[in-house]
Specification:
Blueprint (H helix, E strand, L loop, with lengths): L7 E10 L4 E7 L2 E3 L2 E5 L4 H13 L3 E10 L6 E9 L11 E4 H7 L2 H18 L12 H13 L6 E10 L4 E7 L2 E7 L7 H11 L7 E5 L4 E5 L4 E2 L6 H18 L3 H6 L3 E2 L2 H20 L11 H21 L4 E4 L7 E3 L4 E3 L5 E4 L2 H13 L7 H13 L5 H10 L1 H10 L3 H4 L6 H29 L1
């Protein structure tokens, strides 16, 4: 079935070999042309582009540079990516030819020639160190293979040469590498997520049963190597019992983290403790008032000043109740989506801790509940079942009644923490970036509705 054009993007691929000195081209009339592929929007670009190169030309590549260039004359964007072959001596697939870069730019049409020159000018900035980013430099994949070999050889493992690249940018990388005994993962994170490395190392040390095993740290790249978690991601499981298991193990991990607040905050977990969150209410809502005033569309209507004031009171009421209930600060995961839970018969492992924090424990559970609501997974009483599973481990420390009250009260607070955990809302110009401003307005409207629901739920709990 052909892809919907509205849901796809077209990329030209500049596929290179021999240390990016040659480009793969195909004859096209009297000219030569770059390979062209269609990929889906809003999905991992590097994963799709390298998969298309593998499927269409049987060439294993890694993505170095992706850019959106202006086509001379019409002002439209032409997307392209510069890929490097994993093998320096890669043979040209049938119907294609390797050409030196300067020859390739001379025999291509004007648009693609300009694109090639721009891509290599960008690549040169990274190669010379004028722009930061190890993963835009030619040859980095071979360096990764060599370094990985040194890390895993003492464990009796060897790389098979099979790999899959999932994320790519100059400072970020995510690659799955096959070994003679299962797969391992290399991940690196730059700003604004450079803290993910120290956080991951800390959590792997404190909670080894709940994180993948760390096999090596590449300090220069701010990256690490880890064993693949055994099991199945929660978003691929269809039984409610899997969601119950995830909720229960989340509670067990949080209980295990009690008393480690200082160590977690000092280790670069975000500090989202309730007193600090309360101080965010007024400045956040003041900024949202500015965002509401510049809204162009009539629907959904922007929140009025009185509605924002009411939201502020609702947030303070929820926070007050949560503090009265005195649940302890615990490890939280602000990206608590089912793809970050890997479940096996033995244990549940949690991934991607860039959004690790210290906060009220039911905040993370609320995020898990919301993912259940948005998922295609439907089962009678599923929400009640995962709530009961989450409450069960806590019941030895707190009454189920208090836990239910906390879960009822946390709705708008969880949205506020999600919205305010980074400083983007403080610096964003809502006029120059209307899409992101619209996202914050939508979050604030959701927060307003949730504050009403939280008040109603609290009344029902009391009655």
């Amino acid at each position: 079935m052909p892809l919907d054009p509205a849901a796809t993007e077209t990329y030209r691929l500049i596929v290179t070999r021999h240390n990016t000195t040659e480009i793969l081209l195909s004859p096209k009339g009297s000219d030569w042309a770059l390979p062209k592929v269609e990929i889906r929007k809003f999905r991992r670009i590097a994963e799709q582009l390298t998969a298309e190169a593998r499927k269409g030309w049987e060439v294993e590549t890694c993505c170095l540079v992706a850019l959106n260039s202006q086509i001379p004359g019409n002002g439209e964007g032409m997307r392209c990516a510069l890929l490097e072959c994993a093998k320096n001596n890669q043979k040209a697939p049938a119907g294609t030819y390797w050409m030196p870069v300067d020859v390739a730019s001379q025999c291509s049409n004007a648009e693609e020639a300009a694109l090639i020159r721009k891509a290599f000018a960008e690549l040169n900035l990274y190669a010379k160190g004028e722009k930061p980013g190890p993963f835009a430099k030619p040859g980095w994949l071979r360096q990764l293979f060599q370094w990985t070999y040194e890390q895993i050889a003492p464990l009796g493992l060897r790389l098979t040469g099979e790999f899959r690249q999932y994320n790519a940018s100059p400072t970020f990388s995510l690659i799955r590498l096959e070994t003679t005994d299962g797969a391992i993962w290399f991940k690196a994170a730059g700003e604004p997520n450079a803290h993910e490395l120290p956080v991951t190392l800390l959590l792997a040390r404190l909670f080894p049963n709940h994180l993948p095993r760390i096999l090596g740290v590449h300090t220069a790249w701010n990256g690490w190597l880890s064993a693949e978690a055994e099991g199945t991601p929660l978003d691929e499981l269809t039984e409610c019992s899997a969601w119950e298991r995830a909720a229960e193990v989340l509670a067990e991990l949080q209980i295990e983290s009690i008393g480690k607040r200082k160590e977690l905050v000092d280790g670069k977990c975000k500090d989202m403790r309730l007193p600090k969150v309360e101080k965010l209410i007024d400045p956040f809502l003041a900024r949202m008032s500015e965002f509401m005033r510049v809204q162009k569309k009539d629907s959904p209507p922007p929140l009025t000043g009185s509605e924002l004031a009411s939201l502020g009171e609702g947030l303070r009421d929820s926070l007050s109740l949560l503090q009265i209930l005195r649940l302890p600060d615990a490890l939280g995961h602000l990206d608590c989506n089912p793809g970050n839970f890997v479940i096996s018969l033995e244990k549940c492992v949690f991934l991607d801790w860039a959004e690790a924090c210290v906060t009220n424990p039911v905040v993370s559970f609320e995020y898990l509940r919301r993912h259940l609501e948005r998922s295609s997974f439907k089962q009678t009483a599923a929400d009640a079942r995962i709530t009961a599973a989450y409450v069960r481990p806590w019941s030895s420390l707190f009454s189920p009644y208090d836990l239910q009250r906390a879960i009822a009260a946390v709705l708008p607070v969880a949205v506020l923490i999600h919205a305010a955990a980074s400083d983007t809302w403080r610096t964003l110009d809502p006029v120059s970036n209307p899409t992101l401003a619209g996202y914050y307005r939508a979050l604030t409207r959701r927060m307003y509705r949730d504050a009403v629901v939280a008040a109603e739920r609290s009344e029902r709990c009391l009655s």
